[in-house]
Amino acid sequence: MATKTCEQPKDKGIDLSKVEKILSDYKNARGAVIPVLQKVQGEFGYLPESAIDLISERLNVSSSEIVGVSTFYAQFHLIPRGQHIIKVCCGTACHVKGATKIAEKLSETLEVSMGMTTKDNVFTLEEVACLGACSLAPVMMVDEDIHGKLASDTVGAVLQKIKESGTTQPSE
Ligand code: FES
Question: Which CATH topology does 84-165 take?
Fold first, then answer.
């Protein structure tokens, strides 16, 4: 069962001088929106609202246009993301092998809905299509590492191990 979403912090501790520095390389160039957004996201891990407002002002592009661009491209994120990104596969092979139960268990264990980040900012939970490891279904990817043949009663242990070790490597 999906649990309640956690509230996301709103632009706390955003150092806008870093955004100014990025913008200084792209003086008033409308075509610079995407490279600027990429650099700002590289700096903060997402696109803070205050940064979007500043980019809007400096590049003379409305904030709503910038938000439109950032929602169009999957690479951009408007809310903070966790230290570890969990992508649960919902492709056909994984679905047949119980991916829904895995996703529900992850959501319940982490106390977040899909697309959200845990309160401690450690994990962001996302659903994706086929991860290309169908023979290991059901599968999740934590950062760059694939964890396969999951069971709903073992995902908690996988998460705990990642949290304790700080690594996402699957255990032997
Ligand atoms: S369907 Fe899940 S890895 Fe292919």
Answer: Glutaredoxin (3.40.30)
Q: Per-residue pLDDT tens for 54-71?
A: 999 999 999 999 999 999
Ligand 1 centre to CA of 84 (Å) is: 20
- Could you please state the CATH topology (level 3) that the domain comprising 16-72 is classified under: Arc Repressor Mutant, subunit A (1.10.10)
List, by residue range, all CATH 1.10.10 domains of the chain.
16-72
C-alpha of residue 127 to centroid of ligand 1, in Å: 11
Check residue 54 and give its pLDDT. 95
* Amino acid in the structure at residue 91: G
Q: What DSSP string describes 14-42?
A: --HHHHHHHHTTSTT-GGGHHHHHHHHHH
- The answer to whether the CB of 139 is under 6 A from ligand 1 is yes
Task: Report the separation in Å between the CA atom of 109 and the middle of ligand 1, taken as the mean of its atom positions.
Answer: 22
- Could you tell me which residue, 128 or 1, shows the higher pLDDT? 128
The model scores a pTM over 0.85? no
Sequence-ordered list of residues with C-beta below 8 angstroms from that of 109, at least 6 positions apart, any chain? 155, 156, 159
Task: Work out which ligand 1 atom sits closest to the CA atom of 137.
Answer: 2
